[in-house]
Amino acid sequence: MPDSKTARGTKMAVIFDSWMNEMLALLSTIFVIIYVTFKINYTYWKKKGLPYLEPSFPLGNAWDTTLMRKSPGEDMRDVYFEGKGKSVVGIYTINSPILIFRDPDLIKTIMVKDFNYFPDRGVYIDEETDHLSAHLFFLGGTKWKSLRQKLTPTFTSGKMRAMFGIVQDCARVLSDVTPAGRVVEVRELIARYSTDVIASCAFGINVDSQHNPEAEFRQWGRRFFKPSLRTYMTQALGFFNPKLRKLIPVAFTPKDITEYFTRVVEDTVKHREETGVIRKDFMQLLIQLKNKGYVDDSFSISVEKSDEGGNKSLTIKELAAQAWVFFLAGFETSSTTVSFCLYELSKHPDIQKRLQDEIDAVLKKSNGEVTYEDITSNMPYLEKVIDETLRVYPPVAALNREVVQDYKLPGYDCVLEKGTKVVIPVLGLHHDPKYFRNPDQFDPEHFSDEQKASRHPFCYLPFGEGPRICIGMRFGLVQVKLAMVHLLSKFSFLPVGDKPSKLRMAPNNLLLTPEGGIELRVERRQVPAS
């Protein structure tokens, strides 16, 4: 007869086995339910009668991006080419259906003609827990429309001309701190320049990270842009699967970063309002929006609030969010554009020499000082080189939109329901030989008058198009061009080693950015005498 201890052990084993069997049965049931649900979801585009790429459980068509084998832009480019011959092609990110638009005529229709059906990006934001995310790029609906109307006057050519001197000063420092006769990691070099420009124009503070790379403002910015799995997943899901993103209780912007940048804005606003300091920068215009609800032709401050004409003033949090998006958009996109451009020029010395000749000729006429008119109108080859850089390496390689009301898709017997996510694969369009001769070759003549006239205007979209075109496009181009002029007027950039290294795009970044740095050799030029 077994003793009591043995009996208890046997009983516990039976209970454990029973518990395990029940748990396995429960998990199996849950798995089957999820699997069947996904499989049903994966018939969405087939039922719509639209062409699609075959998904596989459980990540749909998002295996490469989820496992970080490719950047999202490169993945959308590959989808673009897999759907060759189709105007649209359906895919799934995990279990969420997304429609990829390939045809420039159709893209023009949804971005301009039928914009009222596609005004929003469909990005997940939570204004209560992350007020910096409530900025112009993410917002939708009436909030976006109202804010866009308020901010548009801050980016007129007149306002850009007024801020030109601030950017020019930062570009002069850039050429002063660039070391000659050395191998330089140009992304970090340009990142410090971009930090100074944004800090000065958007936040109204002098950071001087070009002389002091460890400046506090630069450290906080570097921390936000440092690649991490957390940041990538929250951003990617926010763009491509907002429903799933809502289940993750993590803010888009870490709390301490939000607190720091908001405090910087609050301190600047308080200082200017108390002292009456006026500075011709973006922050001054935001203060006008805070105090008056609109921007006038001056940079003056008025503390008298005005609701004239229904103009609602911005709160400090709303103001901070717009300064923050200026930082996000202006920092990374401008830094990578200049870095990519220098990389390509190092590989193509003939193009670099031709551009330097143009810069030298313009500077000679203006006694060595580049003007706003020079940057915007008098350097056609610089314009081509920048356009070509943005073609090969568009920072925003895919554009998101969301259907806000049921939409009959032109050319198909299909209605896209409200809430449907659509993507425009910019990188794919930019590399399609149908629109660009030898698309994998860096050639500024892709933007000759002849070639531009021969192709559809909506196959080149580095800044988007239509009512949601990048509001800061003009400022960003001035920032990029000034950096190029000041650098190339003094230096030449050469590859490191016999063969230039092939760039790999960072798979954990929504923007198109090179993995690691870009190292180039910098040599001081023998500049022709004036």
Quick description:
The chain has 530 residues and is α+β, with helices and mostly antiparallel strands.
Describe the structure.
This protein is α+β, with helices and mostly antiparallel strands. It folds into two domains: 4-41; 63-524, Orthogonal Bundle (Cytochrome p450), CATH 1.10.630. The chain has helices at residues 4-41, 44-48, 63-66, 72-82, 104-113, 141-151, 157-177, 186-202, 216-225, 229-240, 242-245, 255-275, 282-291, 316-347, 349-365, 372-377, 380-392, 426-430, 449-454, 473-488; strands at 88-93, 96-101, 182-185, 399-402, 407-408, 415-416, 421-424, 491-494, 519-524. The longest helix has 38 residues, at 4-41.
Distance between the termini: 111 Å
CATH architectural category of the largest domain: Orthogonal Bundle
Mean pLDDT across the residues is 88
Total helical segments: 20
Helix content: 40-55%
The SS-based structural class is alpha+beta
**Radius of gyration, rounded?**
26 Å
List keywords for this structure.
3-stranded antiparallel beta sheet, 530 residues, alpha+beta, 4-stranded mixed beta sheet, 7% strand
